[in-house]
Every structure is written in C-alpha cells, then in structure tokens.
Amino acid sequence: MITENQKQMIYWINERESIRKKKEAGLHKPWSNNPVMQQTYFCNVDREDDKVTKWIRDNWIYGECKDPDLLGEDTTQVYTFSMIVARIFNLPSTLGELKQPVGEDFDLYIWLEHAETVLHDRKERGENIWNGAYIISTNGKKIDKSTYCLQILEKMSNSADIIDGCETLEQAHKKLMTLEGLASFLAAQVVADLKNTEGHPLSGAPDWDSFCAPGPGSLRGLSWFWEKQVTNKNFHKMINDAYELLFMELDGSILDKLCMQNLQNCFCEYDKFMRVTNKTGRSKRKYNG
After folding, report:
1. What mean pLDDT, rounded, does the chain reach?
2. What is the pTM of this model?
3. Nearest of 56, 62, 57, 59 to residue 74 by alpha carbon
4. What confidence tens digit (pLDDT) does each residue in 85-129 have?
5. Between the CA of residue 156 and those of 3, 55, 119, 145, what are the distances in Å?
6. Which of 85-94, 147-156, 165-174, 212-221 has the lowest mean pLDDT?
7. What is residue 63's predicted lDDT score, i.e. its pLDDT?
8. Which of 58, 158, 176, 209 could bridge 187 with an S-S bond, Cβ 3.0-4.6 Å?
9. Residue 69 main-chain phi, psi, to 5 deg
10. What is the Cα–Cα distance from 146 to 101, expressed in whole angstroms?
11. Whose CA is closest to 228, among 66, 17, 3?
C-alpha cells in the first residue's frame, strides 16, 4: 500500500510537470492551487526544462557535432571545461558576459583575464555573479570567491582531458571529482550536461539511464519517501526501489523523463516541498506562480 508521503511525491512530480506545461502554454497564474507550489521555487522534473539549462543549450555550443571541420580535436576537452564554467557560475547574465571558452585556438589566459574583468565589473555594479541554486564555496580558504573560482578554473584547464576515455557516466563522475572545486554534486551536474549534449561521447554511455549520485537533498527526500533514514550506503537500493514504485503510478510521458539523475533531482525538490508543507523548514528561493 502506498503511504501518504509516497502519494505526496507522486503529487509533486505530476503537479510540477503540470505547472511547466501551463506556464509554457501562456496560461495565466496561478498555475497551481497549492500555495506551496505557487510560492516556492522548484526545479523541473526534467532538468533540461530548467531555465538555466535551456540558456546553456542555446548558447554553449558543442562545436564538433555542428561542424567537425571547424574546430580541432580538442573540442570535447574545451567543451568539458566550458560546462564546468557554466555550472560554477550558473547564471545566464554572468555567462553571457564571460562568453563560452571555445575553439581550437582558444587561449585560456586571455579568457581568464577577460573573466577577471567581467567578475570585477559585475561586483562593482552590485550585480549577482552566481545563481543561488548551487552552493559555491572557497572550501574554507580565506580568499575572494571570484579569485578562488578563477584559480581553480586555471588548474582545471590543465586537466581538460580528464574524462577522455571514460566510457560510463560513473567513470566520468569519479574523474571530475578529483578536480579541486568539484565535489560530487557539482561533478554530477557537469556529467548530466555532457550526457544530454547531442553528439558528445557520453551521450551514448551504457549507464545513461541508471547513473546518479546522492546529495544531501535527495537523501532527505528518500528518507521522507520511505519514512526511514536513507544514507549514502543504501542510497542506490532505495532510489531504485522508489523508481519501481513510481513506475506503477506515473504516466508514461513523465516516466520517459525519469532517468535516475532526474529522479535524484526530483527527490531533492520533494524534500523541499515536504519541509515547507510540513513547516519543518523553508526555501531560500521564492517563486511568483
């Protein structure tokens, strides 16, 4: 028998997808009768429908699959670096000024000088540099965050080939986590961007549907769902068991979107929904819906 908490997860998935469809169809607010859904920012069921991801898709181009003769053999490496930049800052207005590092004649040091100027000017103008969705820290170092980000990007550029030869998403994730500044969550976001890029080697990875990495939010969400503590140790069993249950309850059009990375993200958002609904927490990001 499905528990009330599990029904709430099914409700959240269906309602979030319904809100997206109503909004994109140009219907007037409110797009939901639920005040929590109206006032709290939630990511989409499919991360490819999220605003920032759509902006990146439109502006951060994987050149090799568009015109293989235009760019050099290092296109895949430069694109990996580009996606790391995209997710560290994760804000279209900042990314639009930084511009995508791209091209066979790409010069990292020219780009870093340009980036330093952009970040300094945005700070002077009092404009946001980062999107609040991802927490970017200096890992305890007493240093300006912009300076720290540029320093780690310079180091990362020396390892731009780090996922070369990786055949699975899991392998790529483990490799990316060896880079300073890329913990499990952010590395998984970069992996998701790469696997969803048409023509990228990882777009055909055998674990495209099955790979996901636990994060604090999804662990809490699974704990709500199963009404017992879920840890890193039993995460994969619990999320796979959850998928089996949800498979019987959700429409096929939604199931088509639920690769394990999207489901992991949904559990993170569901945790937020449950905390706000049950008044055991709040969301730092509000929504005008």
Report:
1. 91
2. 0.91
3. 62
4. 999 999 999 999 999 987 655 677 888 999 999 999 999 999 999
5. 46, 23, 19, 16
6. 147-156
7. 65
8. 176
9. -90, -15
10. 17
11. 3
Question: If we measure between CA atoms, which residue out of 12, 10, 2, 3 comes closest to residue 277?
Answer: 12
Q: Give the residue-averaged pLDDT of 126-155.
A: 87
Question: Over 60: is that where the pLDDT of 65 sits?
Answer: no
Q: Which tokens belong to 57?
A: 């898709």
Compute how many other C-beta atoms are within 10 angstroms of the C-beta atom of residue 245: 16
- Which residue bears the tokens 């840890």? 231
Residue 64 pLDDT exceeds 80: no
CA 37/CA 20 separation, integer angstroms: 11
User: Which residues are registered as beta bridge partners of 40?
Assistant: 286
Q: CB-based burial of residue 267 (10 Å sphere; 0-12 exposed, 13-18 middle, 19+ buried)?
A: buried
- Count of residues for the chain? 289
Q: Is 163 exposed, middle or buried (0-12, 13-18, 19+ CB in 10 A)?
A: buried
Give the integer Cα–Cα distance in Å for 273 and 276.
5
> Where along the chain do its domains lie?
51-204
| Per-residue H/E/C for the chain | CCCHHHHHHHHHHHHHHHHHHHHHCCCCCCCCCCHHHHHECCCCCCHHHCHHHHHHHHHCCCHHHHCCCCCCCCHHHHHHHHHHHHHHHCCHHHHHHHCCCCCCCCCHHHHHHHHHHHHHHHHHCCCCCCCCCCCCCCCCCCCCHHHHHHHHHHHHHCCCCCCCCCCCHHHHHHHHCCCCCCCHHHHHHHHHHHHCCCCCHHHHCCCCCCCCCCCHHHHHHHHHHHCCCCCCCCHHHHHHHHHHHHHCCCCHHHHCCCCHHHHHHHHHHHHHHHHHHCCCCCCCCECCC
